[in-house]
Structures are given as structure tokens and as C-alpha cells.
Design brief:
It contains six helices and no strands. The protein is mainly alpha-helical.
Length: 137
């Protein structure tokens, strides 16, 4: 695998987690509209449009199903990323890649948590990618 292949594989795990979190948030938002007092009052009083509560419920279920699909994809991508990261010998390299790709942290936050500068985090990241590339070739 090339450096770009490794980065793409790791980025897939990061993106999958972001997509899962977005789908889960949307599902929760729609679920809240279904169980909100306003929705209940509209349903009881008949002031809501026809099947409004039902439509909200179906939309919430659709988003929940999408979240489940995203979660399955996220699990597959994270497992593959973890397999690649586990090839590294140096703890600092593993820590940076786990924080970045599995925990979706920013470069600045990783630097703060590890006590390194952002620039040094970039260097560690580059070394880690090169190490994985050499081990997978």
C-alpha cells in the first residue's frame, strides 16, 4: 500500500464516524419532534395536518435506520484502521493516529493532549504513515 492508500483507509474511519454521528443526531431530533408536547397537542386537538405525527415518526425511523447503516460501516472502517495502526511500534505514533482517525480529534487538540506542538504532531503523523506503508508493502 502507498502512503495515499493508508491515509485514505484511515480517513474512511474518520469520515464514517462523522457520518454516523450526524445520522444519529438527526434521528434524535426527529424523535424529539414526535414526542414533543407541541406534537402531542396538535395530534389531540386535530390542528396538525393529516398524518403529521405519523410522518414525523416515519422520518425519525428512516434516520434511525440510516444511523444503523452508518454504524455498521463505521465499525468496519474503524476495525480496518485499528489493524493498520496496530502495526506501529512507537506509542506516540499510535496515539496520534488513534486520536486523529478513531477519536476524530483536531490537530490542535492532539497537540494539547500530548504536550507536543502541532508541527511536531504533523511530523509524528507522517512518520507513522511511512511506517505503516513500509510494513504493508
Amino acid at each position: 500500500m502507498t502512503d495515499m492508500d493508508i491515509k485514505a483507509e484511515l480517513s474512511r474511519a474518520r469520515k464514517a464516524r462523522q457520518m454516523y454521528m450526524l445520522a444519529l443526531t438527526r434521528a434524535r431530533q426527529y424523535e424529539e419532534t414526535v414526542i414533543s408536547p407541541k406534537s402531542f397537542r396538535e395530534h389531540i386537538s386535530g390542528t396538525a395536518g393529516r398524518n403529521t405525527t405519523e410522518a414525523r415518526f416515519l422520518k425519525a425511523a428512516e434516520y434511525r435506520e440510516r444511523a444503523c447503516v452508518c454504524k455498521r460501516e463505521m465499525c468496519r472502517a474503524r476495525l480496518r484502521a485499528y489493524e493498520l495502526i496496530s502495526l506501529l511500534d512507537k506509542r506516540s505514533e499510535r496515539e496520534v493516529l488513534i486520536c486523529r482517525y478513531l477519536m476524530c480529534e483536531t490537530w490542535a487538540r492532539i497537540a494539547r493532549e500530548t504536550g507536543y506542538s502541532v508541527r511536531h504532531i504533523y511530523r509524528i503523523h507522517s512518520r507513522a504513515i511511512r511506517s505503516i506503508t513500509l510494513k504493508t508493502s
